[in-house]
User: Fold this.
Amino acid sequence: MATTAPEQATSRWTKEDARAARKRNAKLHRKEYVWAAAFLAPPVIGWIAFLLFPMAFSVYASFTNWNGLGAMQWIGLQNYVNLFQDPYFWKALWNTLFYMIGIPIGLALSLGLALALSRKIRGRTFFRTVYYIPVISSLAAIAILWQWAYNGDFGLVNQVLALFGIQGPNWLMDPVTAKPALVIMMVWKGLGYSMILYLAAVQAVPRSLYEAAALDGANAWKRFTKITWPMVRPVTFFLVVTNIIGGSMIFTEINIMTPTGGPQWSTASLVWYVWNKAFRNLQMGYATAMALVLGILVLIVTIIQFRLNRANNFSID
Amino acid sequence: MSVTSSTAKTAPAAMVKATGGDPRPAIAPGFFKAKGATRENPLVNAFLTAILAVGAVIMAAPLLWMVSTSLKTKEGVYALPRSGFPIRSCGTRTCASSTTPTCCRASGTR
Amino acid sequence: MRRMKAAAVAATMAGALTLAACSGSSSGNASEEPDTSGGDAPNELTFMFRGGEYDKLAYEQAIASFEEETGASVTMIITDADQYATKLQAAIAGNKVPDVFYIEPGRMQGYVYANVLADLTSYVEQDVLDNIWDFGVEAYRFDKETGQARTGPLYGLPKDVGPFGFGYNTVMFEKMGIEAPDPDVPLTFDEFVDIAKQLTTDTDGDGELDQWGTGLNVQWNSQAFVWGAGGDWISEDQKTVTVDDPAFAEALQWFADLQLVEQVTPSVEPAQTLDTYQRWMAGEIGFFPVAPWDIATYNAVAEENPDTFGYDVIPYPVANAGDETATWLGSLGIAVAETSKNKDLAAQLAVYLSTDLEAQKILAENKVQIPNIKDYAFGEWIETDAPAAGWPANTEEFLQIADEYGRALPGTWTYAPEWYDEFWVGIDQVLTGQMTAADYAAQVQPNMQSKLDLAWSNAEQAKAQG
Assistant:
């Protein structure tokens, strides 16, 4: 940034002026460049050392047979070929996608919460706190807690269902219910965070817009779809993007609640499978290939999202 | 979206009342604050409070359950042994993440 | 605006790909790590391990006297149990291998091939080895050439051995008027089911069962029964998966039938859940595993509820009278880095940690483990120290498991345990009766075999690459 400012300034002058000025300030400029470089160096070097190099390294590793300890053996695309024939990879990918259905559910619930809590409701501070508590709790502790809550024999969930005369399943041990059970837990855990962001966005919408719309005869639903929803769109976008990226990396809950990948591999996420391959089964090269495929998938999805967001840009003057 | 649909019914009614039949309504002082078009209906708020309360119970229940069971010591409560978290020597995360039983020992003595 | 978006895209990309980068280089969590690198000065050592407070206490004392004896200066690095393996791998990747560290037998082969572990054969006296459990020593032998475990050079010494024993609720047996099982002669499967059926009753007469014969987790308990019936997961040379053997299927079916047919276990799908651990301690389960790391907890429960819970150790049941009982025995080892600058001293420390009498006394007294050294375990400990510290009456069974009949869990002696994990993926179908054990075993065997073959070919590759 510092380097472009003088350039812009000189373009308005005559060439001579510019040349004179440049000469006059040459020393000063050089000094500035040095300082600029000095300030830029740490992040750039850090980026190269901690991001570019590891990334390049992992791309290389994905083309090798490597146990993470010894030397690497170049095997070309073999890892990728194996990957696409590995039923567990596809199963894990499907499971990871399945967990994403928690995102729209969570966003809808948290927007509803934010709308309700932005009203003058008695005890709203209390409610905001209660809904936010799971967010600040440790994920590992929460996972252990829910593992017990889902226990088929005496878990809280089935105790509550029993009050209504329902015999609950053994949630985490049944291939049909294991994934939904995890989704419920994730929504529960993430609700407060989205709620707080939405709350800020909802409260930032100028009241005058609602007043004007109301005077024009817009009903509450219209006001929601035409004012609130577009106005909180940046937050929605942010939450969708970060939730998809976060959701694609889901690991801790899986590893704690279903440490073997669930009955019939029903809960294993991709990152869990990557971890399992890399650190338990000494197939670091294969695991890296899998991680790269996941990274590229997330990248593609994110780019699509940014495109869509641009197409639907909403601005207000 | 029960939140918004419920306001949809009530808010316009309030607006009609406020504007009345007069084509050029006299704007009373404090109109926008006190009787604004988006004034909140107490009934809706009461309804929302009830829903929020139910939600709050659901949100807090697992945490409260954990606290309550960890306070009980007698038989009949299977959830948590007194040592704290229910880390069973074999079959929990640390153990099953590596079949070698050594991890069991580590978590068993934790 | 455009530029902002480009920046945002870039940031998102970076975020998404950091994941990929992390898994490749382990650099992600390097920042907050303690320095694990080995000592530089001739008397400096680092020791990286994991464990509970008593491990730490015992080793602090052992190391203090080691330092006094040898003039060494030892830095201890303790990590969380579930992070240890990843941290060690990161330390190795970063060329910061500690001088002395824990190693699991099941993970050792990769490390040996990568020349991470020092060959301790010439550093340890034979009479020292003779006094340690054979299993505990053999577990750290590995022959690089043939890829066979339990033979060849020595790459570590046991921190401990962990026998997974079986037990019963003494109080319940007494109440029900059932004769206590013999502490040395194993029950047969039929006798076991018979007793379990007697124990499975409704004690308070409310029409619902509230006491059961047993309730066992398939992943940690079926081994003993399968072995006790002559089956196994893998052939002796570790090259063939043998789950399709009829004896195996029969034993597994018997295990599943404890719930499906005999109904001597509680609840819906109890064999997979952990519920029974709590029920056992609440005095509702007759037979349940007992291992050294359980003793402290069980003793506390027994003390608090003496009228419902008491326990003792017995051998696991066997298929037919006269068969040999079996169960698994684990171990955690202490290894020395090949790159250590003070290998001799480091090897001495490993021996010290493994066999120092005072440290062993602390660990045994606090019910962390049974002693490592045979003469103490069979002598003073079993005679006086163990009873005094509250170990159960038949603690000797633990010693017999360690000394005579304990086996490693399947997968321990192979390069990677993926083939063994494969077995458990669909096991719920057997336990819920959707599939017979024989059908399941036949279906899963080829997949297991191909993963085992992969492990062997990866081992070959690791050997070639060094």
Summary: Residues 1-31, 269-274 of chain C have pLDDT under 50 and may be disordered. Chain C touches chain B through 51 residues (CB under 8 Å).
